[in-house]
Design a protein that fits this description.
The protein is an alpha/beta fold. It has one domain: TIM Barrel. It contains seven helices and nine strands; from the N terminus they run E-H-E-H-H-E-E-H-H-E-E-H-E-E-H-E. Helix 6 (about 165-180) links the parallel strand 6 and strand 7. Helix 1 crosses helix 3 (about 65-75). The longest helix has 13 residues, at about 165-180. It starts with a strand and ends with a strand.
């Protein structure tokens, strides 16, 4: 039987996300045990449910924000498991998984929180970033409006495996198909005892974020539907 490689695209850690209970190290161990080949740490950015205090100098905030990812990288050394860096940018409950840029981008753009959502999406993509609109049709008390940007994102999370209501994913799938956007699956994992089985499955190993973005741009993968 041909070997396949599963990558979780949407993971939070306790170090960076106030709503998460699993540390970077614990998330690595849990995903290895669940049969994944890698994961992308997508902690809540400073305009979301961040665990990073807002009263620190910008450099200190960025360093703390990256700690979950960096702890995960250390834990994964020597295992063959791959850990990549990203983040989840938010505006009033509208969330964008931001791939392809690193700590240096955040350090260089200390005015990032002053940008409008449109400015953020345009600047990130112009800088080589890749944006997936996370759970675009989710309904929750903290989401005050439906905001869609089909011309400013690369992909749509059509399967958020943590959703209890299938309508949210169904609407996202229709939306992505209508606008010919790349389709993503992710679990939105926050806790090591709640891995929902989402992610993307490839027929080849992916060893870097650059390889990941190149692979999803070819749409040569399978969506994991979750447990």
């Amino acid at each position: 039987m041909k070997k396949t490689y599963k990558y979780e695209t949407h993971v939070h850690t306790k170090e960076g996300s106030a709503c998460a209970s699993g540390t970077g190290q614990e998330m690595v161990r849990a995903h290895i045990e669940a049969g994944y080949s890698g994961m992308i740490v997508t902690d809540h950015f400073f305009n979301g449910n961040t665990a990073v205090p807002a009263d620190l100098p910008w450099e200190s905030r960025v360093e703390l924000f990256c700690q979950g990812y960096e702890n995960a990288v250390e834990e994964a050394k020597g295992t063959g498991f791959h850990v990549f860096f990203a983040w989840e940018y938010s505006y009033r409950g509208t969330d964008f998984l931001t791939y392809g840029l690193g700590k240096e981008f955040l350090l260089e753009h200390r005015d990032i929180l002053d940008w409008s959502t449109e400015e953020y999406l345009d600047i990130v993509r112009d800088s080589g970033g890749f944006i997936c609109h996370a759970h675009p049709f989710r309904e929750a008390f903290y989401i005050d409006a439906l905001r869609l940007y089909p011309d400013r994102v690369n992909a749509v999370e059509v399967i958020n495996a943590s959703h209890a209501d299938p309508r949210f994913n169904e609407k996202a799938l229709v939306y992505a198909a209508k606008h010919n956007l790349i389709k993503f699956s992710g679990s939105d994992t926050h806790h090591i005892d709640a891995l929902f089985g989402g992610g993307l499955e490839f027929d080849f190993e992916i060893k870097s974020m650059e390889e990941f973005i190149a692979a999803v741009n070819t749409r040569n993968y399978r969506l994991l539907e979750g447990n």
